[in-house]
Design brief:
By secondary structure, this protein is an alpha/beta fold. The protein has one domain: Aldolase class I (TIM Barrel). Helix content is 46%, strand content 14%. The protein is built from 12 helices and 8 strands. It has an 8-stranded parallel beta barrel with strand order 1-2-3-4-5-6-7-8, surrounded by 6 helices. Helix 11 links the parallel strand 7 and strand 8. Bound molecules: 2-phosphoglycolic acid.
Length: 259
């Protein structure tokens, strides 16, 4: 972890939590926040709970995000959510191109590109997810896959837009499986991503880029992952559903920065 960057710990709650459950979890995170306030914490509840979470965390300095966005501002797009609506509900961040969206809902690098542009156009910070399948890893195609995903989505942005994008490397085989990438595997891909960013936008932009790791991050593996030079924080699924484990991951990431 490079000391210049403050660790970012984002909790993707996926399709979990009622409004009441979301409030309870957000309150518990807020209670524990003073101890980890050197990190940026982002709570990413389902759409229905965004406003409630926003209200709960607003004074505390915790951030809120959404799990998806459409690229149009309004119109006949039943079931979609617009960047304008997310902004109004209090979001500052939005996850784009999560592998579950790609796998179950047909999202592609092209839709990720359009959504990223729309989010940036409304002052939302996109958290753009990339990552390879198990088959791609076993066939030594990981880096090629990552390169293609970046080239077809965020590398079409100009420099000032790209500077506001958070990247999340999430190997698909590690998501929800309890099988995290080893620190070495994560570092290899993170440093590759940073080198591609440097090639496209220059070293200064690459040095400042925030690259999160996601995939079975837990309190007991967060420290060793966060110690890697190019791992700037985490996108956490399962372990973000309990305040204690989410906060413990933030504590471990901070310990790694200070180490
Ligand atoms: P997981 O999910 O931590 O439950 O593996 C990560 C994610 O999907 O972002």
């Amino acid at each position: 972890m490079q000391t210049l960057r403050k660790p970012v710990i984002a909790g993707n709650w996926k399709m979990h939590k009622t409004i009441a459950g979301a409030r309870e979890l957000a309150e518990a995170v807020v209670r524990g926040f003073p101890e980890v306030s050197q990190a940026t914490l982002i709570l990413i509840p389902p759409f229905t709970a965004i406003q409630e979470v926003r209200k709960t965390i607003s004074a505390a300095g915790v951030e809120v995000g959404a799990q998806n966005v459409f690229w149009e501002e309004k119109g006949a797009f039943t079931g979609e959510i617009s960047p304008l609506q997310l902004k109004e509900a209090g979001c500052r961040f939005v996850v784009i191109g999560h592998s579950e969206r790609r796998q179950h809902f047909g999202e592609t690098d092209e839709t990720v590109r359009k959504k990223t542009l729309a989010a940036l156009g409304h002052d939302l910070y996109p958290i753009v997810c990339i990552g390879e399948t198990l088959e791609e890893r076993e066939n030594n195609q990981t880096l090629a896959r990552i390169r293609t995903q970046l080239e077809k989505s965020v590398f079409s942005l100009d420099e000032s837009s790209f500077s506001r994008v958070v990247l999340a490397y999430e190997p698909i085989w590690a998501i929800g499986t309890g099988r995290n990438a080893s620190p070495e595997q994560a570092q290899e891909v993170h440093s590759f991503i940073r080198s591609l960013v440097a090639g496209r936008y220059g070293k200064t932009v690459a040095d400042c880029a925030i690259i999160l790791y996601g995939g079975s991050v837990k309190p007991n593996n967060a420290f060793s992952l966060a110690r890697e030079k190019d791992v700037d924080g985490f996108l956490v699924g399962g372990a973000s559903l309990e305040a204690e484990s989410f906060l413990a991951i933030a504590r471990e990431a901070l310990r790694a920065v200070r180490d």
